[in-house]
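TL;DR need structure tokens for one chain.
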Amino acid sequence: MVAANLAVAQAKPRARDLGVPFDGTPGVYNAITDVKGVEVGHTTLISGSGKLKVGEGPVRTGVTAVLPRGKDSLDPVFGAWFTLNGNGEMTGTTWLEDSGFLEGPVMITNTHSVGVVRDAVIAWRIKKAPPDSEGYSWSLPVVAETADDDLNDMNGFHVKPEHAFHALDTAHGGPVEEGNVGGGTGMICNEFKGGIGTSSRVLPARLGGYTVGVLVQCNYGRRSQLRIAGVPVGQEITDHMVRDEDIGSIIIVIATDAPLLPTQLKRVARRAALGLGRDGSFSGDGSGDIFIAFSTANPGAADATGVRDLKMLPNQKINPIFLATVQATEEAVVNAMVAAETMTGINDYTVYALPHDRLREVLKKYNRLAK
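>> reply
TL;DR here they are.
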């Protein structure tokens, strides 16, 4: 299954393939997995059609897992989070804020499946690391959401523990599947079909050679505000509009191998907002725009024995990381829309994909087509 998914990920055109120009240098996969050790897994649930019958479908949902050091590591990473607009949920952030450590994966699903995914992660982690000799074992998982109730029977609770387990157990490095997959299966972005998108940036050797990777689950935005590569695409492609307000959400996961401490990662997480701004977002009142950043540097920092020796990038050298975060966020959102495909869900409601040919026409009109 993983091999087949990788083939699909590699076969789909991405924004750069269509001639969308972006600043910065991406990594080998132009994905969050360009940060060494990071793995991503999905479970995609699609079944049924026609009229909504709560508990029966149609089903258009799933789960996405991001594992900072891969599924075989129990070593926490330094992390931080930021909420641009709080009409959404990300569990586990109180302890993340206080401790500065992200312990375990970042999971993303639909709004009403946060609880079952959270509980499943606890069970998965206990299986990976049973209680110690004193019976001590606990977990405060990070699980985030965006709402897919336009296309999915969200009140039917179709995401089960085994679906979270599958996303975790099949997580992998390399190319990342985008669009209508995992937690992004039933999502809408800028009134086009949305979903999962990813991108990365690699800094030049003179700036440390660090990598920044971003993964988004995008379900936000008004068509009229959409800009791609600075072009008002949303004002040029105005058919099949589906929303009157910005009532969606976006979850953004930022990974880097730069040696950053939690206070610095909080600053990095904030910069994702600027990437959204490049795509035209104004973070509406009904949107849950929640971001999390982590660093895979400083392995063993959470070890409870002795004094930890840490490395830290000076604040004066962090600007390239900020810029890379903005650039990768901007591109990840566009990649999500480019990869997504037209979907019909509950009550035969259809959300159309961003048309590739018309996007190229608009970019050409504004002299922004790269090829």
